[in-house]
Write a structure and sequence with these properties.
The chain is an all-alpha fold. The chain has 17 helices and no strands. The longest helix is centred in the middle third of the chain and has 35 residues.
Length: about 400
């Protein structure tokens, strides 16, 4: 254990020192740490050996995603978003359902032995985009603000929207008969997940922000404890929503939006520490992914798995986005840019772990396809982020 801890701490330290330089290149933290995980893991020199339970890994990935969602949302420019709300709304209300539908159809075509529900589960698991992997795009000032904010809001909400759909499919499979699951059940589940998540995020953040303001006025907050404030608030939003059977991801994103809107005084200082913690947790998730997951399953990738992974990152994502943005004031290259930058990452990892105990006939293939898609996304979206930004917005 201590050997693993030493290696991870050293790598995070080195990356922290060089991040400002690295992130200006085609490299990214997830690329580097996945590759380092593969090199240091059983597939490479075998100095990293993780003995970690799937629930522990799931929790780590969830917390990393929760912090990223909260901090990214709190930095959202609401004035820009207000004038360009059509982009995220279209991506969520039209693009996301089309992505799931097209992913389901392609899954059924690529994997001949898949049940319809297995293809549907795969489509939902790979539908949400990753806020952390999309950070080079949503943080670049070269990208038009309306596209930045649109992609940020989409990635912040689509995983929360997909959670009740995933639960509904799991419930249908568990019931062994579609007839036992009514449409009203699905609608109630969907509304409950979204509604509870939204309510918890707004209420918790509002109360916490009032307490933060009061304590700052009375000088009760010590500098040494400031980094914990946003971290604890984000974890409270996430965990309380989960306890109440709501979407913790929706809770974190809505809470972050509210916090960024109502706290103008201490926001920047408090968010920086939480953002760093979320990024660090993300790097740990990715090095474990490279060492434990990729190293174990890499040799099992088949051509149908690779083909579907490529389709998921291209046609299944880009076509629905292009259709959903018809009539929006974006040119062809900007629409293609928006469609291409839909990276798959932490949310898909969390979702596939949720389904890993189901007695699906083709569960192994489903899991391998998710792993392959996430791995390709880390590499392709990481390598292409800065070059495509420069090419698409060079004249902006």
């Amino acid at each position: 254990m201590y050997q693993n801890l030493t290696i991870i701490a050293f790598l995070v330290l080195i990356y922290s020192l060089l991040a400002g330089r690295i992130e200006k290149t085609w490299l990214s933290g997830p690329i580097i740490f996945v590759v380092l995980g593969v090199i240091a893991g059983p597939l490479g020199i075998n100095i990293l050996n993780f003995n970690i339970q799937k629930e522990t890994y799931k929790t780590l990935a969830e917390l990393a995603l929760a912090l990223v969602l909260f901090t990214d949302a709190s930095k959202t420019n609401l004035r820009v978003l207000e004038h360009n709300i059509a982009i995220p709304l279209r991506l969520l209300l039209l693009g996301l359902p089309l992505t799931i539908f097209l992913g389901w159809v392609m899954g059924y075509l690529v994997f001949n032995d898949f049940l319809w529900i297995e293809a549907a589960l795969l489509a939902v698991i790979l539908a949400p985009t990753d806020a952390a992997l999309g950070k080079p795009v949503v943080s670049s000032q070269k990208v038009q603000s309306k596209i930045r904010e649109g992609l940020n809001v989409e990635s912040g909400l689509n995983d929360g929207v997909c959670v009740p759909v995933l639960f509904l499919l799991v419930a249908i499979f568990a019931a062994q008969s579609v007839d036992k699951i009514s449409l009203s059940f699905g609608l109630v589940l969907f509304a409950r997940e979204i509604g509870i998540g939204l309510l918890v995020g707004l209420v918790v953040t509002f109360i916490c922000e009032k307490l933060i303001g009061l304590c700052f006025k009375r000088s009760w907050i010590l500098d040494s404890w400031k980094p914990m404030i946003i971290i604890a608030m984000a974890v409270c939003c996430f965990s309380l929503a989960q306890v109440l059977n709501g979407s913790g991801f929706i809770s974190c994103f809505s809470g972050g939006i509210l916090y960024g809107a109502i706290n103008k005084t201490h926001k920047i200082d408090l968010i920086k520490a939480a953002e760093g913690t979320g990024n660090t947790l993300g790097l740990i998730v990715w090095i474990i992914f490279g060492s434990l997951v990729v190293s174990e399953f890499f040799h099992e990738f088949t051509w149908p798995i690779i083909i579907y992974a490529i389709l998921s990152l291209t046609l299944i994502r880009i076509l629905p986005v292009f259709i959903s943005l018809i009539g929006v004031d974006l040119n062809l290259s900007e629409k293609l840019f928006t469609g291409w930058f839909g990276p798959r990452g932490l949310a898909s990892i969390v979702f596939v772990i949720m389904t890993i105990d189901l007695d699906l006939p083709n569960l192994h293939t489903l899991v391998l396809t998710v792993i392959c898609t996430v791995l390709l996304s880390i590499l392709l979206h990481g390598f292409t982020a800065n070059p495509i930004i420069k090419r698409t917005f060079h004249a902006k």
